[in-house]
Amino acid sequence: MYDFKIEAGDKASLYAELTEAAAALVAGEPDPIANMANVAALLWESLPELNWAGFYRNVGGELVLGPFQGRPACIRIPFGKGVCGAAAATLEPQCVADVHAFPGHIACDAASRSELVVPIVADGRLAGVLDLDSPRPNRFDQEDAAGCVILIQRLKTALAGMAEEGTKLA
Questions:
Q1: 94-96 vs 114-122, strand pairing mode
Q2: Which of 7, 8, 38, 55 is the right S-S partner for 14, CB 3.0 to 4.6 Å?
């Protein structure tokens, strides 16, 4: 049984604790879907002011909904569309203070106001993206982005078992 109590006083410590807890959750488990489900649940329980936490997987060159916590979401997102599609197309994290000001934003949940998306790249392939949404504008900052990048770097092998299905990067 897992009972993680993450109560860090600052963001750097918060993300360090989250990364260690997530690594413990996925240790020894080869199934990426199971690992995504547990990591999404951990983020949902540990990060304040979220209304969605989860993953989109790269399947056949488009993002397909993966494990998540929150309200129902868009099932398929083309690369280059919305915040998730921008992260997939550029392979760069996207930290958006106001999604309504983001060109091409896809409103899966009208309550979402800010978003953080981090691509998962393993073995030269985009495996998917981590997506965090908040109902509060400016919820995410560069510390959140850096913390999530470190988390994904640490967990990419456990989360990227579907990389064979992904598109090989140049």
A1: antiparallel
A2: 8
